[in-house]
Description:
By secondary structure, the chain is an alpha/beta fold. It has two domains: about 1-20 and about 230-425, Alpha-beta prism (UDP-n-acetylglucosamine1-carboxyvinyl-transferase, Chain), CATH 3.65.10.10; about 20-210, Enolpyruvate transferase domain (UDP-n-acetylglucosamine1-carboxyvinyl-transferase, Chain, Alpha-beta prism). Helix content is about 30%, strand content about 30%. Strands 2-15-17-16 form a four-stranded mixed beta sheet. Strands 4-5-3-14 form a four-stranded mixed beta sheet, covered by helices on one side. A four-stranded mixed beta sheet has the order 6-7-9-8. Helix 3 packs parallel to helix 7 (about 165-180). The radius of gyration is 21 Å and the shape is globular. Shikimate-3-phosphate binds near residues 167, 312 and 336. Shikimate-3-phosphate (S3P) binds near residues 166, 168 and 313.
Amino acid sequence: xxxxxxxxxxxxxxxxxxxxxxxxxxxxxxxxxxxxxxxxxxxxxxxxxxxxxxxxxxxxxxxxxxxxxxxxxxxxxxxxxxxxxxxxxxxxxxxxxxxxxxxxxxxxxxxxxxxxxxxxxxxxxxxxxxxxxxxxxxxxxxxxxxxxxxxxxxxxxxxxxxxxxxxxxxxxxxxxxxxxxxxxxxxxxxxxxxxxxxxxxxxxxxxxxxxxxxxxxxxxxxxxxxxxxxxxxxxxxxxxxxxxxxxxxxxxxxxxxxxxxxxxxxxxxxxxxxxxxxxxxxxxxxxxxxxxxxxxxxxxxxxxxxxxxxxxxxxxxxxxxxxxxxxxxxxxxxxxxxxxxxxxxxxxxxxxxxxxxxxxxxxxxxxxxxxxxxxxxxxxxxxxxxxxxxxxxxxxxxxxxxxxxxxxxxxxxxxxxxxxxxxxx
Length: 425
Ligand code: S3P
C-alpha cells in the first residue's frame, strides 16, 4: 500500500514511543531458556519480536501474551524440544542470529529461515565461530545465506576476535558460550550495544567484560521480571523531526539511553540540537529518561569509527537531518549499513537525491551538503522499516507531498508510527 503526506506548519506532541526492540527480543529469549517464570512488561508487539515468540513456541517454550505483557515459563537451558517445522524468523536479523547461538550444538536438528531480505544477509559471521566451537551448522552459498541448518555437535570453547562490531554476532557467541563446556573469550572490534551482557549477567550468567574483551563461562540462568523502556531508535525519528522543523516542541517519553545505543544523542548535540533530558529512571538495569526536543539550527558534522556502532540504525534519519544542517556532514566507516534489512547506504542516497538533496555515495557512507531543501515525490520503503519512517519524517518538512510505497514496513519495529505522525499538531 502507499501513503501520501503533506508538510505540517507546526509539530507539537507528547509521545510514548514503542518498547525497545533489542531488549524485547532478549527479554523473551533469555527468559525462555532460564529456569523459572517471568513477566516481561511493555514488550514490543512489532512483527520482529512476534517472530521471536513464534520461534520459541515451536521449540516447546510456553509463552503467554496478554496485552503488552509477555509471560514466560522457562524450564532451563537444556529444555528446548525439536520443532515440527521450519523456524521462520520473518524479517528479523536479531532473531536469526541470536537464536543460532541458542540452537548451536543442541541434540536435535532444526532449520532457521526468513523472508527474502533475511536470505540475502550475511550469516557466515556467526556460523564460522559457532562451528569453530564444535557446532555442526550449514547454510546456503558457503554458509553465507539462510536457510540455516543445525545438525547437533558439541560446544567446547572459543577464543575469537570479532571481525565486525556487531551486537548480534557478539550475543550469538555469548549465548553459545554459556552452554559450552569450557567457556569462551571474545574480543569486540569496537563497542556495540551491551544489552545481552547486562541482562544475562543480571540473570546469573558468569560474564566478565574488560574493555573490548569478554569472557563467558558455562552458566545456568534464572528468570527475571523485566520492564522494557522505549526504543531510542524509534525516538530518533522524533528527535530529528523536532530538530529540523522550524516550529516544533515534542516531548518523547521513557526513552532508553544506554550509552552503547545513544550515539544519536551525541551527534545531534554536536550538530546544535535542542534536547532536554528529564525524569531519569532505571528499567531493569537499563537507563531511560524523557526527552524534549525543540526546533534548532543544525550544523553539519563528521561521524565515523567507534561512533558508528552506537548509532548504526539511526544513520538513515541522521542523513535526513544533515540535509537541513548548515555545511557538510560526512559519514564514513559505515559499510555495515549495506547489510541491514536493505542496502541502507544506496537506498538513502538514491531517495534523497531524487528528492533534490545534495548527496554523494561512498562504499562506506555518504557526504551530505546541507541545502535546507527537499522537494517531494513517490518513494518506496523497499520493505525496510527504518526507510519507511525516514520518508514519513521527510514528508513533514518537504516542499511538496511525499508518497511512500510499502509504508507498512514500519510495523516491524514501530506499530502506530503513522498515527503518532498524524497526531502531531
Ligand atoms: C541489533 C544489533 C544491530 C542492529 C539491529 C539490532 C541487536 O545489528 O542493527 O537492528 O538487537 O543486537 P548488528 O549487531 O548486526 O550491527
